């Protein structure tokens, strides 16, 4: 003896059949389970020389530092043209222009890199 109830469920005696579509709606899709926020590991920026710096320091805008997860006194790597690599100590400062990083010109200038060059900056692990 089958009785139809609301919601598409059918009762047979003491057993109750459950609508499979309701169970499937509870399970999240696979894309939702694998969803991760992507963190930037490197970014292309303009390198400007700051002659007031007396040691190898890179002054990084706070917006860029938060994107790359860089904090004060951490080491950052600046790569110009994919060949010339330089390491600096990070100094985070407030700035409206997040695509310009100010660096100590000592070693960079000796290696033939010009002011206002485009470079890639990344955090050294």
TrEMBL record:
<protein>
    <submittedName>
        <fullName>Uncharacterized protein</fullName>
    </submittedName>
</protein>
């Amino acid at each position: 003896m089958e009785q139809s109830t609301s919601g598409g469920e059918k009762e047979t005696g003491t057993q109750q059949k459950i609508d499979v579509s309701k169970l499937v709606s509870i399970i999240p899709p696979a894309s939702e389970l694998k969803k991760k926020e992507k963190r930037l590991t490197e970014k292309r920026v303009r390198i400007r020389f700051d002659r007031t710096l007396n040691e190898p320091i890179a002054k990084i805008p706070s917006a860029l530092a938060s994107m790359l997860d860089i904090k004060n006194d951490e080491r950052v790597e600046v790569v110009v043209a994919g060949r010339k690599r330089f390491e600096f100590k990070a100094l985070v400062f407030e700035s409206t222009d997040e695509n310009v990083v100010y660096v100590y010109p000592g070693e960079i200038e000796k290696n033939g890199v010009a002011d206002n060059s485009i470079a890639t900056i990344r955090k050294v692990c």
